[in-house]
Amino acid sequence: MPGIPPARYAYLGPEGTFSEQALRAIPAAANAEQIPCVSVADALDAVRRGEVAAALVPLENSVEGSVAETLDELAGGEPLQIVREVLLSVSFALMVRPGTSLGEIATVTTIPHAEAQVRQWLRSQLPAAKFIAASSTADGARAVAAGDADAAVAAPLAAERYRLEVLSDDIADHPGAVTRFVLVSKPSPPPPTTGADRTTVVAFIADDHPGALLELLTEFAVRGVNLTRIESRPTGVGLGRYCFSIDAEGHIAQERVGEAMAAIRRLCADVRFLGSYPTADGSTPGERKGTSDLEFTDAAAWVQQLRTTGPA
Amino acid sequence: MPGIPPARYAYLGPEGTFSEQALRAIPAAANAEQIPCVSVADALDAVRRGEVAAALVPLENSVEGSVAETLDELAGGEPLQIVREVLLSVSFALMVRPGTSLGEIATVTTIPHAEAQVRQWLRSQLPAAKFIAASSTADGARAVAAGDADAAVAAPLAAERYRLEVLSDDIADHPGAVTRFVLVSKPSPPPPTTGADRTTVVAFIADDHPGALLELLTEFAVRGVNLTRIESRPTGVGLGRYCFSIDAEGHIAQERVGEAMAAIRRLCADVRFLGSYPTADGSTPGERKGTSDLEFTDAAAWVQQLRTTGPA
Amino acid sequence: MPGIPPARYAYLGPEGTFSEQALRAIPAAANAEQIPCVSVADALDAVRRGEVAAALVPLENSVEGSVAETLDELAGGEPLQIVREVLLSVSFALMVRPGTSLGEIATVTTIPHAEAQVRQWLRSQLPAAKFIAASSTADGARAVAAGDADAAVAAPLAAERYRLEVLSDDIADHPGAVTRFVLVSKPSPPPPTTGADRTTVVAFIADDHPGALLELLTEFAVRGVNLTRIESRPTGVGLGRYCFSIDAEGHIAQERVGEAMAAIRRLCADVRFLGSYPTADGSTPGERKGTSDLEFTDAAAWVQQLRTTGPA
Amino acid sequence: MPGIPPARYAYLGPEGTFSEQALRAIPAAANAEQIPCVSVADALDAVRRGEVAAALVPLENSVEGSVAETLDELAGGEPLQIVREVLLSVSFALMVRPGTSLGEIATVTTIPHAEAQVRQWLRSQLPAAKFIAASSTADGARAVAAGDADAAVAAPLAAERYRLEVLSDDIADHPGAVTRFVLVSKPSPPPPTTGADRTTVVAFIADDHPGALLELLTEFAVRGVNLTRIESRPTGVGLGRYCFSIDAEGHIAQERVGEAMAAIRRLCADVRFLGSYPTADGSTPGERKGTSDLEFTDAAAWVQQLRTTGPA
């Protein structure tokens, strides 16, 4: 469409990483300009500065856990909002310059996060190889191509890009690993409810009295809102001071989720809402009796009647 | 005021009972017509039929506990509403026909509820006397006057009325007993909040799964609403099937009370609201951080903003 | 058996009451001497003084609720122990002197507890009849025989005994009412576990801070011990000060029940154990995963090992 | 002492890291042989193989949070035990080859974990500098000395070792950052209670039903055991499947901690005890009424008496 520039999407680069692969799963990004960034912070700041429409960053991995940098960058700074999530099967390959054999590998490079996922394999297959930390899996592949390391652990995509040879495919210690990416944009009205939604929020406990987390969880539980992820993160002011990054089933537009959000807002020193968006796998939450929107609005109407006209 | 008949108030009679004494504590009833009824059920039915403006009935006693008949009559039938409570110090006297000495007492009469409160005294002072159940403390005094019993345990007021002699005053085993009466009228807008209010409600558990009561209490607790009385009552359909009569601190017009009421409405098979009214002793509830009306409305506004415009 | 006097059993008399009928359901009492007492207190004191082997007293009724006198007499005084329970279907009959017709009944007598269970029937069938409180259902029948009242509401057994005529059978407002009686003896080792047992206990809250009852219930819930009855009773020191009479599923000899009992002992100002005994209806509690005796002892052994030798 | 080899201690190397600095705080390690290891896994495996008496590894940092590799290595494999903790103030310095000025720095290297702690500083002072991931802070310093990068963020100790010049001291975004290290050995009887102890444990939820974490926390809370850290970690079998790494106040030898440990053992699919050991800062837990060792043993004795002789 002449005159209208295509949307731009940032991702955790460089090219050839899993993030780029995940971005391809988003139709709107297919024809858009894709901007690789050197860090999650850079990708999110590009959103904040309005340079890109959205950024795709990894949030958690089924083996390695949460991506601390993403959690922390979303928890602080100018508010951002998750509008979508993408699940990507993560398959690591061991790649070398063409001709290198397994026995010739003295050094292996990748990011520590990936190294942790293939550690058992490396111990058994390359017990003598030395690990060199890379700044991304793709950069590890680049380093191998440049002769700075003998082998890289990276996405198969990177082998193509850097003309490397895959010696062994799917070497993760836990096969079937999945990484969850989130598409982050500037604040805007949340996408509509689909019936299969997730809400992400960061809760800063008011004071670290014993039982504060128990109280927080209880506010969700009494309203029938299930949590699918809870991650403590330090607030930076000392050991033992945490905030909690939480994924809850449901959408802020739903009564039970809205009331639970309001409750933790009252309970906590601060709450940052990070978005309500469709679940990538379409999983729908179970709904406990008494927690449907209809039951919430009926009960609220009943209370309103009691207040104005008394019991009927 | 010519042309306007005075209001009529029913009470648990006959004349000379503690209920009549309590009714005098209500200024509006002082110049009104006072109608003694033979039972709590009769007094409340007089309200339901519109024959009286309100009825004063006993709800609980600090020694003998709840008055089951009152709880059950309020929990069923046409809805009624508590608009006021009255506390009355209950002082029992042993009264006889003039000239009777302690040693001559072979039979003592009063209502079982009162007998229970002076049992230790009777055991030690009149170990051989036989107890005859009366239908009211005043009727016991009348029976003594008629020669059907030797002594009655009743309110001092009854001695005057039936020309009996008080042999011993204040004979309750637990001195300082207090009875709480409630003034019950037809449904109407609750009296305004005073800052020192109580809300009474009956909750019918949805199904008797283990932990149902725990869930009920948790709904109040998470919203900072304290309970001052909870009483289980059978629903009549079998052992182990109960409803709960509950007094909570605060007024239905308060956000935390309203949300708690809506929550138990969603949780329970049925909830009957019995009124929000000032506490007789002016006791004000403590307010837990995060549960003021302002905090509730602020949090609700925040959620509303998230729903419509996203995080700010 | 010559030389050995038969055991003596007390019950809430007089003869002809439901208590006597319930006592017959206990084989050991069939050939024993049966002693009617004028009150629950008298029956229990007879046990305390060693005059009888045990006393059978009513604890609760499926329509009228707990029998306050029984709860209070068990909660105070010298310790006693429930060793058995009996369930009795309670069927009330309206009885008159032979020849009296329904239209001739001006006065009806029974105990208030029974009157409450037939109130609807009386209102519709005998709207003009006056109620006279009796001290027992049997005594009401005796009064009718003596001409002091026109009709009595009592157990059919009483009609036989006092040669009255039953005008109407089974007049209870809630058909199928059941009364639960307990057999009480002096403290002794509890009867062995049967797999279908109940434990009765009285808990005196340490201080009436909000949430004390919630804490109490949580101690049972976390250990998978279900409660089948909980009743608040005033402690006599003022409105708002309660103790709780509790029935829990299971036997003190079971690990989960024992640990829960120890927990409330630590939590409360005082706890009075009233016995573990077989349920009359053979109902067996569900057993939540992780709460069997085996799991308790395995876990305790594991902790003991950690303490002495560290993790294995 | 001739004939007895000195104890050997492993630490997360290479030399010049914060781990080495922390190891010096342990008197027993001062004269021992100190073995740098290339990873936490290597350090812990050295303990498992018996090559060293113990290993010192970082567990969490007040800014960057838990060290995932340490949590995961302790949660799996042959059981190990924490016997001590060390707190170390973490102060980062920017170091260069002598003569390099701030304006000449084009590349900065350190471990990502450290980069995250100085990110704001780098953004404002060296906005154009490119970040190169190193495998340790000390290795970053080595790389600068070798000319592979212009500046390193590392412990001041590393500047000495690699003859670098400190351009700026204490550049962390959150001054006062603290890292907590744990000394890990093979299983053995835990060190004795000091009154200021901590217990570390990993709990594998039995099934991921909603509320499983709430149940887990409740088991600690009802026994008055406070948690000072809780960290979810994926179990590797899929998104949404977690275990929890937990620090609790108190010592396994204490009754309340032992009972809580037994409770989660019964509740969870698996529990791994990682040790009870003195807190580094001597912080003593508050003790809630009813949870002292004396109250636990008294209550247990009371239950035992009930079981054998009945109520006294």
Structure description:
4 copies of one chain form a homotetramer. The longest helix of chain A is centred in the C-terminal third of the chain and has 17 residues, at 293-309. Chain A has 3 domains: 1-89 and 179-188, 3-Layer(aba) Sandwich (D-Maltodextrin-Binding Protein, domain 2); 93-168, D-Maltodextrin-Binding Protein, domain 2; 190-312, 2-Layer Sandwich (Alpha-Beta Plaits), CATH 3.30.70.260. In chain A, the strands form 3 sheets. In chain A, strands 1, 2, 3, 4, 5 and 11 form a 6-stranded mixed sheet that branches. Chain A has helices at residues 18-23, 27-30, 40-48, 68-75, 112-115, 119-125, 137-145, 156-161, 212-222, 255-267, 293-309; strands at 8-12, 33-37, 54-61, 65-66, 81-89, 93-96, 107-110, 130-133, 151-154, 165-168, 178-185, 197-204, 227-234, 242-249, 270-278. Chain A has 11 helices and 15 strands. With 312 residues, chain A is α/β, with parallel strands linked by helices. Chain A is elongated and about 85 Å long. The N and C termini of chain A lie far apart (62 Å). In chain A, α9 (212-222) runs antiparallel to α10 (255-267). In chain A, 30% of the residues lie in helices and 29% in strands. In chain A, a hairpin with a 7-residue loop joins β13 and β14 (242-249). Chains in contact: A-B, A-D, B-C, C-D. Chains A and D meet through α4, β8, α9 and β13 of A and α4, β8, α9 and β13 of D.
